[in-house]
Amino acid sequence: MSSRPELQAPPEIFYDDTEARKYTSSSRIAAIQTELSERALELLALPDDGVPRLLLDIGCGSGLSGETITESGHQWIGLDISHSMLNVALENEVEGDLLLGDMGQGLALRPGVIDGAISISAVQWLCNADKSSHEPRLRLKAFFGSLYRCLARGARAVLQVYPENLAQRELILSYAMRSGFAGGVVVDYPHSTKKRKEYLVLTCGPPSLSTAVPSGKVEDGESCSDDESSGDEENQVICISDRHRPRKKQKINKKGKGREWVLRKKQQMRRKGNVVPPDTKYTARKRKARF
Amino acid sequence: MLSSNIKGVSNGFPLKIEVEKVVEKQVEINHDFLRNIFQKIDWKAFFDASKVMGFAELPEQAPDPSVLESDLEFLRKFHHALLELHLEEGALVCPETGRKFPVNKGIPNMLLHEDEV
Q1: Which of A21, A106, A249, B117 is the most buried (most CB within 10 A)?
Q2: Which residues of A125-147 are buried (b: 16+ CB within 10 A; e: fewer)?
Q3: Which of B9, B36, B42 is opposite residue A53, by nearest beta carbon?
Q4: Could you say which residues form the signal peptide (chain B) (predicted)?
């Protein structure tokens, strides 16, 4: 059984009363959501003039991401398909206006009124056909088309997604481009499996200087940008061919794996964003026979 | 109130409001936000909506944007109608098709049936 919630049930059924409560009361999820929405707001790059904007939160759920928007002083409208999640949001007395709606049916908003949109872990739900009438491609098209219309010109949309595989990411991106958006994917912590987060940064209107894709975050402060057609795809290809190759025998001699091996592994863990002790002269040194 | 004011279905704007219950919530006034949102509002729809909700102090004709800079009384009224009036129970009705979107606990249900997509 997969742990991806998208594969278990449609969103309006998966996020029922118990799941909605569980989701909101979990401090771990709340912390992740807050971190994600803070990063999304940062990527949204709203002009810093203290004027509150009207933002749209797609898949707002119980309003965890909305609270971050409120804290930064903006007004927001939240859209979600799950009634239970919105009820939890009501109980928490979130500041934004809530809407029960399906993003795959298009957003029922007047053109050009929204100053920016964020979406945390929601768009990948569109790729699943939960009813016989659902056609993921049409739903993606309706979503991005209506999003494009309701955004003001030059406004940005930052959508944090968990694509299941490369094809899904390409699909989402291609529909975004077809609706007229400019932009690309920003990947934070690309080497980590858990911390890796993908953000679609889309801008209304033709590409210009302001639509340049910001770079992703890496643990050691370096930045790295990942456009649709760079490194990751190559990695993927290599992985596939690797699978059919006979496993390389690990070189273990009597002395153990050696200092180089330890250093390499430590570097690997550092790239993943784990906390690794610094390399010293004691690294991988053998203990004496007695203490 | 905000959401229903500035919302339209692809085949019709504005949505008419059927009121069953309106609540008022105190919201802090923010002049910058009001000035920003003012240009985006369809004044006639907004005027009608606030009248239906029982707030008739707004002028029928859209005021000149310069009013926003000076007239604090107008800003207060505008703020009240825009942000403090909430439609708690009722429905939004599409002007073209007559389709009703029910509003429960302040949340409009905009889900469409399968045959309406």
Answers
A1: A106
A2: bbbbebeeebebeebbbbbbbbb
A3: B36
A4: none
Which positions in chain A touch B95 (Cβ < 8 Å)?
Answer: none
In A, minimum Cα distance to B25 occurs at: A95
End-to-end CA distance of chain B: 26
* B chain contacts of residue A109, beta-carbon cutoff 8 Å: 6-8
Within 8 A of A69 by CB-CB distance, chain B residues are none
The partner residues of B100 in beta bridges, in order of sequence, read B93
The C-alpha atoms of residue B40 and residue A276 are separated, in whole angstroms, by 52
pLDDT, residue A254, reads 63
pTM: 0.70
Question: B75-84: per-residue pLDDT in tens?
Answer: 777 777 777 7
Class of domain B16-110: mainly beta
Q: What percent of chain B has pLDDT over 70?
A: 57
Distance between CA atoms of residues A80 and A98, nearest Å:
8
Decide: helix, strand or coil at residue A97.
Answer: strand
Amino acid at A24: T
pLDDT for position A263:
92
Residue B109 with chain A: CB contacts under 8 Å = 100-101
In chain B, the residue whose alpha carbon lies closest to the alpha carbon of A134 is B114
Average model confidence (pLDDT) across chain B: 69
User: Using the beta-carbon criterion (under 8 Å), do A100 and B108 form an inter-chain contact?
Assistant: yes
How far apart CA A184 and CA A187 sit, in angstroms, is 10
Identify the DSSP state of A62.
T
ipTM above 0.95, yes or no: no
Domains, chain A, ranges and CATH? 5-204 (3.40.50.150)
Q: Where are the domains of chain B?
A: 16-110
A198 versus B11: the higher-pLDDT residue is A198
Q: Where are the alpha helices (DSSP H) in chain A?
A: 11-14, 17-25, 27-44, 64-71, 83-91, 136-150, 166-178, 231-244, 258-271
Mean pLDDT, contiguous 10-residue spans, chain A (291 residues): 68 77 79 84 77 83 82 83 82 78 76 82 79 77 83 83 82 85 80 79 64 59 40 39 55 71 90 88 84 68
pLDDT of residue A2: 54
